[in-house]
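Progress report, Aim 2. The chain analyzed during this reporting quarter is listed below.
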Amino acid sequence: MNVTNPRSIAVFGAGTMGAGIAQVVAQAGISVRLCDVEEGFLQSGLARIQSSLDKLLSKGAIAKEGQSTILQSIQTTTDRRTAVEGVELVVEAIPEQLELKKTLFAELEDFCPPSVIFATNTSSISISELAQATRRPDRFIGMHFFNPVPVMKLVEVVRGHDTSDATVGVVRELALKLGKVPVEVNDYPGFVSNRILMPMINEAVYCLMEGVATKEAIDQVMKLGMNHPMGPLELADFIGLDVCLDILEVLHRGLGDPKYRPCPLLRRMVASGRLGRKTGRGFYEYPKG
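Predicted structure tokens for the chain:
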């Protein structure tokens, strides 16, 4: 099995991130198996990929034949054992919950030969802890993509305590083949990206809760004063307020510093189902369509 140049990859989770990862893998000419727990989730994921490819087609970035080839490279299944048959690398992109991810990897451990590399798209959870659910910690690694995956260039390559140099090398080369820029970081809560980003978003929510300024004013200050393309509250809606809360919980628990304590307003909004763009309501309202 040629793990130095994977020709077949399984992606678990057909949500925004998983669908995006499957798309860029297929665009690179690599066969993909996209797996999720319900057929409806898979169909939604394929619809996301189709919409993304339609945009590329309209811009002339791909040809019609190329679009068909990409879509034909993506197979879908709800069966985990089927998903990993013959693959050389697994990328997990399921919800940001420790036990959910550990359960998946523990199950996949029994289905996959020892040579298969396990990669997780977690944005904050310990790679070393997730690797303990398997018998291959040397072949376990973080491969943190950014949303929207087809557009964003960065991939954080996160080395766990036992991740081998060979595994890092395979994943770095894969990221380059996908047209991404791999940046190697070490295994600390939130890695680099979210350890810096989430406290900023959290502080913006505190500013709103304490009446320092309106949501529009907070976002405008950061866009015009700091040259950010999106304000922190708008960005939180884009990421998902539930995801932001999950990551802040990991930072607070993992680093033990009160500066990472999630803002009560953020907790309240998540509890009320205001999760951002995906629910049509967050800090802002998003009309259907």
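Residues 39-58 form the longest helix (20 residues). Residues 194-277 form a domain with the N-(1-d-carboxylethyl)-l-norvaline Dehydrogenase; domain 2 fold (CATH 1.10.1040.10). These observations will guide the mutagenesis work planned for the next reporting period.
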